[in-house]
Amino acid sequence: MKHPMAAAAREGLHVNKIRADFPILARTVHGKTLAYLDNAATSQKPSSVISAIETFYTTMNSNIHRGVHSLSEEATGAYEKSRDLVRRFIGAESTREIIFVRGTTEAINLVASSFVQPSVKAGDEILITGLEHHSNIVPWQLVCGRTGAVLRVVPITDEGEVLLEEFASRLTPKTKFVAVAHVSNALGTVNPIQAMVTLARERGIPVLVDGAQAVPHLPVNVRELGADFYAFSGHKMYGPTGVGVLYGREELLSTMTPYQGGGDMIKSVSFEKTVYNDLPHRFEAGTPNIGGVIGLGEAIRYLSSLDWRAVEEHEADLVAYCTTMLSAMPGVRIIGTAREKAGVVSFVVEGIHPHDIGTILDQEGIAVRTGHHCAQPVMERFGIPATVRASFAVYNTREEVDRLGKGLRKVKEVFG
Fold first, then answer.
1. Is 374 in the active site?
2. pLDDT by residue (tens digit) across 250-268?
3. Residue 57 belongs to domain spanning
4. How many angstroms separate the CA atoms of 18 and 194, rounded?
5. Catalytic residue among 372, 374, 402, 410
6. Is residue 201 domain-shared with residue 316, that is, in the same domain?
């Protein structure tokens, strides 16, 4: 898939130069240089993003869309410029299709409350997969509980994949909505999302794609994908926490009633009637995270300056290198061996709890995630309580993977 902003630099990936852009990577943990391998939880931030947020608060801090003074106009301009950067980054047709939210979770809940819940009834079905994050499970359970609709799940294979034929077989006349992850946060599996969207749309079924784990690693063009809704978070793509994006096709967003009221989502209010604002503002109630949106815009500028083909190749090399290393270690089992993966290697070590592994690795300056990764059904599918998850970003190196291997050997020594 071609990236919508593919005109970015084509000079290759200079990882050491990139690492210098991220100040936190220079710190030490327990006297060891930080090896940050927890990027699926949240990525680190380049100096340019940190500076953009600081500049907002030190030079133009003001509320937006409401003031005629200079600070308000400057802040509004910077905020809306970020909206257009997002539009271009994901290939949306219009800025009216870009809704700023707190993150992927709020985006999914917005769609659940304002689009799906009013349109389903008892006996209708909502289809998800066995790979989903809790944020793409619980909102649909809430809708089903309120309406009598039924949640259906496409099972995953022993490799952690969703088979297209299994997906297609569960698209029935009762299926009224599909919600699916582009990339699994727990296993790194890349779903055949374009084919899945096509299968659903051929049957007239709208689709939401959870893109939280995809946008930092893969080129995403929402018009090429054909998804009706696409959700992602800023903090996983080198931007700040507390800000994210819901893309929705304009013809669908224009039919939806806001699920939050107040502030900027109105045109006029009386005790008898409220007239909602135009898109996208009708879904952005209250004062937004202005500094966060501006920081997200800067993160997109940063990502767009990179050679995306080189980014994909570099991160794929890290996944393959880590997989090869772990596969050669006795007692280590990789969970999730899909043919297409992005950014994640999850594993367990025989006889040692993942939390103990994470604690010892931390003493070596290595940050990994341990637990169920907000994907308990995935853990249940593989009959385990938790995994150790190493997840990669553009600034990670093979040397850090080697440190992970050395740390795991120490773990095994400690536990005999």
1. yes
2. 999 999 999 898 888 888 8
3. 50-304
4. 31
5. 374
6. no
